[in-house]
Structure formats: structure tokens, C-alpha cells
Amino acid sequence: MDFDDSPDEAEYRSRVRAALQQHADELLRLAPGQEAVDARLQEAEMRRTQRVLHDAGLVGVTWPREYGGQGGSLLEQAIVGQELARFRVPALINHIGMGMCGPTVIGHGSQDQRDRYLARLLRADDVWCQLFSEPASGSDLAALRTTAVRDGDDWVVNGQKVWTTLAHVSDYGILLTRTDPEKPKHAGLTMFVVDMHAPGVTVRPLRQMGGQSDFNEVFFDDVRIPDSERLGEPGEGWRVALTTLMNERVTIGGAGSAIGSPVEEFARHAKERLPELDADRQVLARQAVGRAVVAALGARYTGYRRLTVLSQGGIPGPEASAGKLAGTEAAHLMADAGVRLLGDDAVYAATADGDDRWQRTQSWLPGISIAGGTDQVLRNILGERVLGLPSEPRLDKTAPFSAGRSDGGTR
Ligand SMILES: Cc1cc2nc3c(=O)[nH]c(=O)nc-3n(C[C@H](O)[C@H](O)[C@H](O)COP(=O)(O)OP(=O)(O)OC[C@H]3O[C@@H](n4cnc5c(N)ncnc54)[C@H](O)[C@@H]3O)c2cc1C
């Protein structure tokens, strides 16, 4: 297999690099050692960065032109992703909108909804979030309790969501609700677009152990949503949500890129640090580095395989779960090896040169094993839907939700 750029791809890559260079002064960029930015503090700069990149043709590369995209290929999208990372541009503020909400609106929204929302989403004129998880339904998402009750031309929503990334800066969200408790739990759900500024929507930040607050609790008290904001038919919410979840795993798992630090940067760091360790530590660190690099390259090539399938017209299937698992495993091994490489510095908040990327990566990684489907749930999906192993007995697929038989389903 040849992973080098073809002449056309190399030409496209150099155009992307030139565009980034041309707009360098207008873009928010990560400082050395910095892994992420805080949308709470730098919302305006993040919105501007996405707008500048969009106007330079580097956002929505694969999206149809009629919705503000570039009508390009997945390989072009992968090249843009690699070059943005190389140029140290942080994750775009609307990464959830582009990765999950937009594809759901394209797949299940009315023409009017697509016209109103998609181009603005790509320019970050509106930021979007995904309102699925609740305090008692994460893995078992279909057990959610937030209700939407029809009232004339509107639906009235009551309930609570949690872990909603970016809700604090969002203008819209895709919201999964229960509209018929008498149906089995998967059959009684309906999806909507909700205006995050509507009366009755309250957003409260949650603070993480790394100090930042990326996600939130969101409360709905008699929030009115017009029926025209429904995505899909009433009762079809689970089918609509599966579109979101499959795209989420491709987005998080990356198609052609790795979760966490790029392997080349990691290897460079390892080369610098290894000679500074004493002999015993060097042996352990060398083994950890070796394991991490093998896993990271494995995840990268799994991503390339997925990219090939997608670029040949395939749709994201349960295999996306394997990609996300491989990326998560590699990111954990890299972060562990990184901390081992730091030696004694690993126990302090930051190293002498102020580079605390590995400690911060460690504090951020547990979330990656949970977001978009936990490691355990993804292994269940692989066992049942890829390997064809027998599934667990599931009463929750037939009994009405109101009967309270919600025994451990998975996303
Ligand atoms: C960084 C981050 C960002 C997130 N962003 C969003 C967001 O924007 N919007 C949103 O809606 N949600 C978001 N979430 C929530 C996320 O989707 C849920 O946390 C996740 O689905 C797990 O649900 P839970 O937290 O309720 O854990 P639970 O489902 O309660 O799981 C607890 C433990 O039980 C295990 N488990 C559960 N069921 C099974 C099973 N059937 N078999 C084996 N083991 C099982 C799990 O693997 C886990 O170890 C985010 C989470 C994180 C960490």
C-alpha cells in the first residue's frame, strides 16, 4: 500500500499550506505544549478562526456546495485535518456541529431546515451541541426520560441532559426526547432541533479534574419547540440518533488521524527525554514507547482503511467502533509512556520548561474512553454486530417503556 500523496493530493496539500500561511495572523493557534483551548474563555477567537478557515475553503470540505461546503473528497478532508493539526490550529468550535449535528440534519431534516442551518453552522455563525445523555441514561441511551408532549403546533419539553459539550456557547442543539412512553423504549423517541436561547433552557457548567469546563448540565422547563423543528417522524428518534452516533465514532476515532498527540511528535519527545533517564527507567520507558508507537500506527492504519471504505461510498457502520477503540487504546499508551518519560517530573504539575502536556493528557484521557460510547459498550457492539456473537437477552426491546423494563441496553 502506498500512503504517499498522489501528485494531485500533493498539489492540494501545498494549496492548503499556502492558505494557512496567508491567514496565519487571523487564526487561533496552540502554543508549544498546549493541547486545547477553552471555549468559555476564547469563544470569539474560536468562532473567528472557523469563519476565516471556512472563507478560505478549508471547512466542510466534503459537504455539498449547496449547504456551504466545498463538494470535495474525504482524502482532501483528511489532508486539511492533517495540515490544521500541523499548523497547530485547535479543534474547531463547531466540531460537534460539523461531525454529528450537521450530518443528522442533512440525513433527516426538511429542506427548509437544511437551508436555514447548514451554511451558518459551517461558518460558526451558529454553534451546535448534542443533547442526548441524561443522568440515568448514557450507555443505555434509549432509556432517556426527557419528555416532549404535543401541544398544537408545538411540542413542550421537560427534563435534564448532562455532559453536553459546548452547550454553554451553543445556539442550537439536536435533542433526543421521549414522546411515547407506552411504546418499547427505542420506539417511543423523537429528535428535534432546539434553540438553546429559548425560554426555559438553563445551562450549568461542570468542572473537570483538569480544571476546564468543556461540558454542562442542561435543564428544560416547559420549553416550546415548533413541530417544524422535528428531525424525522415522531417515534423515529432512535433511527435518527443512530446517524448521529455512527458519525460521532468516525469523528472521535478519526478517519486517517489519531486521537491525542501525533505519533511523530511523541517519538521526537521520546528521543529527547530517553537519554535523561537512569538506566532502569530507560528500559521501562523504551518498552512503553515501543508499545505506544505500535498501537498508534495500528490506529492510524485502521483509520486509513475506514477512510478508504468511506471514500468508496460506504457508510459509517459498526466498524467505526473498532476505529474509536483502537485510537483510544493508542492514546492511553502514548500518555502513559509520556509520563514515564518525564521521570520524576511526572509527579509535579509541570516540568521545568513549563511543558505539562503529558500530565494534562492523562487527566483528559479517561473521558475519551467514555465519550461517544464507552470502551465496554463498543466491545459489545463489535462482538454482536461485527463478529456475530449471540447478544444478551433483552426484555427492554419489547416491553413498554412505562413498564420500567430498562435492563442495560447499549447505544
Ligand atoms: C468528554 C465527554 C464528552 C461528552 N459529550 C457529550 C455530549 O456532547 N452530548 C451528550 O449527550 N453526551 C456527552 N457525553 C456523555 C457520554 O455519551 C456518556 O458519558 C457515555 O455514553 C456513557 O454514559 P454514562 O456516563 O451514563 O455511563 P454509564 O452508561 O452509566 O456506564 C458506567 C459504566 O458501566 C459500563 N457499562 C454500561 N453498560 C454496559 C453494558 N451493557 N455492558 C458492559 N459495560 C457496560 C460502562 O462501560 C461504564 O464503564 C460526553 C462524555 C464525555 C466523557
Task: Report a brief summary of the structure.
This protein is an alpha+beta fold.
Regions with pLDDT < 50 over 5+ consecutive residues?
none
Helix content: 40-55%
Instruction: Provide the succession of SSEs.
Output: HHHHHEEEEEEEEHHHHHH
In the CATH hierarchy, what is the class of the largest domain? Mainly Alpha
Q: Over the alpha carbons, how many angstroms does the gyration radius reach?
A: 22 Å
Distance between the termini: 34 Å
Largest sheet: 4 strands, mixed
Structural class of the helices, strands and pairings?
alpha+beta
Shape: globular
As a percent range, the share of strand residues is 5-15%
Main β-sheet, spatial strand arrangement: 1-4-5-8
What does the average pLDDT come to?
Answer: 87
Total discrete domains: 3
CATH-defined topology of the largest domain:
Butyryl-CoA Dehydrogenase, subunit A, domain 3
How many helices in DSSP terms? Answer: 11
Query: Hetero groups bound?
Result: flavin-adenine dinucleotide
* Tally of strands: 8
Overall CATH architecture of the largest domain: Up-down Bundle
